[in-house]
Amino acid sequence: MAAFRPDPPRPITPVAPPSDTPHGVAAPVARVIEAFRRLPGIGPKSAQRLAYHLIRMSEAEAEELADAINGIKQRITLCQICADITELPTCHICQNPNRDRTTICVVEEPLDVTALERTRAYNGLYHVLHGAISPTSGIAASDLKIKELLQRLQNQQTNDQVTEVIVATNTNLDGEATAMYLQRAISPAGIKVTRLARGLPSGTDIEYADDATLAHSLQSRAEIE
Ligand SMILES: [Zn+2]
Prior knowledge:
The protein is built from eight helices and seven strands. It is of the alpha/beta class. The relative contact order is 0.11.
């Protein structure tokens, strides 16, 4: 099984300067603190608290955690069809015969699929780009799973033709740039390209939108002109 490929290169969160690690911390603990500090949303205080929590854990619990982290890298891959994270060559959504195969919802990240699934307002398929086009961060269309999406639309069977692509990228500049790019690339093929927008405040990360707002914006999606 192919190894899971991380997101395209992005600015790396700088490692905390050594002075941030409290004096007198044993090297193995300092190493864990540093590792936690590189996670999103974890500040120095939280990193320390988590590290000391690990010290108090039983050996069995610590092993279970280490094993779970290893499993993410070893057993996870990207779906051959939609690029969502899965343990199987094809994810359970792409395999499900009850999903509407005429609609593909394009999202930036796997967590966005989870957010949209939670709304229970959508029964089509997905395509995960693994990021958004961002001229400011130097992320181009070729760094994302856009080529795979266009190929997917080109290689369709005559039954189950995709008639609509819903662009559910975030409502910030990068998300909008990505939506415009997709509209220009896809609509000449006669496929309707719609955008989730109505009701979602600008600057919204799909991942953090509340279920009701997200469900509403799905239902009131509009074609991109
Ligand atoms: Zn899939």
